[in-house]
Amino acid sequence: MKSRKIKLRKNVKIAPRVSAAPRPYKKLIKKRAVQISKIISLLLVIYAAFFIVLRFKEFIIHSNYFCINNVIVNNGKFLDNAVILGETNNIKGENIFTLDINKLESDYEALVDVKTAVIERSFPNTILVNITERIPIGQISYNRNIYGIDEDGVFIKLNESSVLPEIIGLKKSNPQTSELIEKIITIIKRYNIGRLSEFGRLKNINVKKPQNLILGFMCQGNVIKIKMGKTGFEEKLLILEDTLSRLGQTQMEKLLYIDLRFGEDLIPAKYRK
After folding, report:
1. Pick the CATH number of 165-271 from 3.50.30.80, 3.40.50.11690, 3.40.30.10, 3.40.50.2300
2. 160, 138 contact by CB (below 8 A)
3. Which CATH class is domain 65-133?
4. Which pLDDT belongs to residue 153?
5. pLDDT tens digits along 111-140
6. Any idea what the Cα angle at residue 26 is, between residues 22 and 29, rounded to 5°?
7. Taking the complete model, does pTM exceed 0.90, yes or no?
8. Which of 8, 21, 247, 259 could form a disulfide with 266 if both were Cys (CB 3.0 to 4.6 A apart)?
9. What torsion, rounded to 10 degrees, do the Cα atoms 235, 241, 243, 248 define?
């Protein structure tokens, strides 16, 4: 009987223990857990960085350390300008980071005698204002006022008359004014860079007759009328340089006019050497 039980036990096969979850599924769960852990860590880092940036931004915006208390205008002429002074006083106390630089530059450049304005921040609390002023190259009397004209054709009100070439006969209401101004600028700029100043001074430019501009050239105490016509001014001024270089002092004192309308040296014969 005993041997039979032993025999039965030997014939009984014990089934292997079945795990609660297959091995591949365990690995997937572990992998997902790691991924979720990384995402949570990344979110925490982003949140911390955002919080730090936000706090830093609040600090630099509200800190007195970055409040503007000094404005330097790098052009002495504009130190007493009412608009410049007003803007300068208005921005003091503002935060240097939040200051609208573009608007400030536009406000300054709206002034007639300002050509360009460049605003720079100098940390922690200083603003630099670099102004390029308009330089008149000619002048005109209009409605009992004296205006300068710069190389861009912009009119600038002057306090008093100067030694600049005077523009005679120019009217703002004339439809040809812009074209005449371009011609005037061409003549004056060519005069300024050429050799004509060695022989005398450009006193005035008469544009009453647009088809025939006439220059008043002060030479040896004598005003010589230079008939220029309506085109080719640069070439004609070169001819004028050559013409004056061939005249003696006595001839310059007696000379009344030079006709360059046709692009030639047309000095009256009696004044030639």
Report:
1. 3.40.50.11690
2. no
3. alpha beta
4. 93
5. 888 999 999 999 999 999 999 999 999 999
6. 140
7. no
8. 259
9. 170
